[in-house]
Amino acid sequence: MEEEILKCADLIVTSTNQEIQDQYGMYPHDDLPEFRAIPPGIDVDKFYPFYHDMLPEAERPESAMYAKASLMQELNRFFLHPDKPLILALCRPDKRKNIDGLIRAYGENSNLQAMANLAIFAGIRKDIRLMEENERDVLTQMLLLMDKYNLYGKMAIPKQHDFEHEVPEIYRIAAEKKGVFVNSALTEPFGITLLEASASGLPVVATNDGGPRDIIHNCRSGILVDPTQSEEIACAVSGIIAHNHQWDKFSKNGVMNTRKHYTWQSHARKYIAEIKRLLEKSDAADLAAAVPSNSIGNRLIKINYFVVCDIDNTLIGGRNEDLLELIHLLTDCKVFVGFGVATGRTVDSAVTVLQGHGIPSPDIIISSVGSEIYYGPDRHYSQGWKTHISSRWNRDKIVTLLEQFDFLEYQLEATQRKFKISYDMAPDKDHLAMIHARLLKHKCRYNLVYSHQKHLDILPFRASKGKALRYLSYKWGIPLSNFLVCGDSGNDEEMLRGEPRAVVVGNYSPELEKLKGQKHIFFAKAPYAGGILEAIDHYQFIQTAKADASS
Question: Dihedral of the CA atoms 498, 500, 505, 511 (nearest 10)?
């Protein structure tokens, strides 16, 4: 499913550049969509700089002052010299967070112990023995290392903290004490705590992995380290604490740059800018539901219900009496119900066969298995649909890649279209798998449709009868549930699925058997046009459309 998303998406938004390179980079289709790293934001009103606490008490919320006082009291229980700078860690008690690596860095460096205290907020606990194994092991190791390095009076491991009110104050307390926040995780997909600390004016030392790389690059608020090297962690922390100008620089950079790069406002601005760029690139103006000036456009904007039929073996092919009754019914309700066809035929072939059976000109023709759309009796070609499906379509490349398969018979040129490649192929699952494998290997974007146990059509990845139907629903503001779609074979399957009311006529091909039991798909007993009439009665489609039009 993720591969299918990568094939179809125009844009993938990630939180970090590492996601693009190391995660999506593992997929064969990693180069098909565009990627943009748009990181999440933080609430800068909640994680405000420590020096705001110097404002008069009347301008500070009571809850914040209480939380700070409570935290100070808790920390002071642990420290012999509470006025020292504070090295702060705040994370889950998880082995990947490498808490023991930080304690070793502190415990093995006597200069750092003399310089600063260490406080580790590792989740909330009551009884370590009752916790899950991973958490229990981490917390037990913390206590053992505290004892090993004799860090009593220098290291705090509080059991409780309030996420809503106390966490922001934890950062500001550490910043007021000219301390440092440390994220020593072995791997870090993003690192939201680094942003919270930086926004509070607290310099950071972070693992040189994942999100921290982007955060330190953008915020310039600290130093990246190898989390497996205790001496490197200790050196980075002590260097920041010992040099006031460095501490001040990192603190100021963090406050300013988190507000520049990591607020929800900046996230939304970047996201909207990318969407606007995509829309402009896709000729979005043509996709919008604008009011056209021609007669067919004026008609379509007034219609709220539509019957859309496949032609061969659905609309035609059965009893002439059934077809005449259907034509008469659609003509009588033409004022409030539109009529369309969706076919594998070319538009010219479709018009010829419709006229030959006395079927009135449709309001819409979806032809060539959904790769073309035409409007009205004059058959106005939809340039908007053309623009939409042409993205990354390389017809010549696909034809060349499939030339080696002797089980494919290229159909006559009269059936070929700019956005449709047609073959004949005997039914064989292995052959279909071989086609997919070859096209995927060469990073082609396509949609493959196999029908009637014979016809193989390859379209742009955005093209199909079902996708064309959804495009028309969006463009003309007609709810998908107000479409009645009628089909008999595999190239109708996507059109039949989902929200539209659907009918599979009684003479259907075996490939549609799997749709039985699905919601909104009615299997008629009668074949051809008789099955369509049966579905109209089953759904009370005309009565509903008429009542809606009257209201």
Answer: -20
% of the chain beyond a pLDDT of 90: 66
Question: Taking a C-beta distance cutoff of 8 angstroms, is the pair 371, 389 a contact?
Answer: yes
- What is this structure's pTM? 0.58
Q: 459 to each of 155, 428, 450, how far by Cα in Å?
A: 65, 20, 11
Q: Are 117 and 149 in contact (CB under 8 A)?
A: no
* pLDDT tens sequence across 495-504: 998 899 999 9
Residue 288 backbone phi and psi in degrees, to 5:
-70, 155
| Residues counted in the chain | 551
What six digits make up the tokens of 436? 């997919």
Beta strands in 180-333 (DSSP E): 180-183, 204-207, 222-225, 306-309
C-alpha pair distances (Å), 16 with each of 6, 166, 216: 18, 28, 12
Beta strands 483-487 and 306-309, pairing class: parallel
Helix (H, G, I), strand (E, B) or coil at 268: helix
**CA 233 to CA 187: how far, in whole Å?**
15
- Is residue 475 exposed (0-12), middle (13-18) or buried (19+ Cβ within 10 Å)? buried
What gap in Å lies between CA 186 and CA 102, rounded to an integer? 11
Edge-to-edge strand list for the sheet holding 117-121: 155-156, 117-121, 86-90, 180-183, 204-207, 222-225
Q: Which two structure tokens, joined as six digits, stand for 520?
A: 């909104």
Q: What integer pLDDT is reported at residue 308 of this predicted model?
A: 97
